[in-house]
Amino acid sequence: MGTVRDLPAFYYLDHLLAVLEDVERVHGGALGEAERVLIEEFRAQPRMAQATWARMASRKGRYFTADQLEYAEIDRVDRQLGHLRESGFVRPLEERDVAGWLAACTKAQILGVLGRQAQPPRFAVSWKKARLAAVAAESIAPEDLLPEQGTYVQEREAPLAFISFLYFGRYAEDLRAIALRDLGLIRTRGHGAKATARFQTEEEA
Questions:
Q1: DSSP three-state, residue 92
Q2: Nearest-5° Cα angle at 195, 191 to 197
Q3: Is the dihedral of CA 199, 51, 70, 84 positive or negative?
């Protein structure tokens, strides 16, 4: 394991753009329509919106509040989320997302959801998170489970996973491998390293 590096403010965005360029150049024949659209529309975003989505894609999970995306280098994250929402990179949390969102919550968050109900179901603080989440899902209407604070769902996981597969050789629904590499914590192919296409077409991949 390497030493954590001191990196410039938008290192993660510049490296993501480099990865997209590399995948397009080396594996262009294997890219499907969804991957091509993602790359094209991501490049069309304002730089601050690009940085916001790059931050999301470099973290675990797909549910985020604006507060969780507050970084010193990103101006007006709420505005950036608006850009991303308009172009389909994120969307607000909906009732259909409740089960997945609960599974991603911490125990403290689930206790908060249960505690704010007018007529909360029977539960014990000592219960494990999975049991608390199950009680919430089974006993409370989905619309009452939605968090009070605006929460966004990261979209385009499937094309992102395929791009990750082409670049790293394994599927992942986020780009944490890039973040860990940039921090010097894992080794992957570096920028500028010569690469050859493993697949010539989308069908081969």
A1: strand
A2: 135
A3: negative
Residues near 20 by beta carbon (within 8 Å), at least 6 away in sequence: 39, 42, 43, 163
- Give CA angle at 35 (32, 39), nearest 5°: 140
The answer on pLDDT for 11 being more than 80 is yes
Tokens of 190: 């570096």
Separation of alpha carbons 87 and 94, rounded Å: 18
Structure tokens given for 45: 């975003």
User: Would you state the structure tokens that stand for residue 191, as one six-digit string?
Assistant: 């920028």
For residue 108, the one-letter residue type is A
Question: For 80-117, how does the pLDDT look when each residue is reduced to its tens digit (9 = 90+)?
Answer: 999 999 999 999 999 999 999 999 999 999 999 999 99
pTM: 0.80
Q: Are 50 and 42 in contact (CB under 8 A)?
A: yes
Alpha-helix runs per DSSP H in 28-171: 33-43, 47-57, 77-86, 98-104, 107-115, 129-139, 142-145, 157-168
CB 182 within 8 A of CB 12: yes
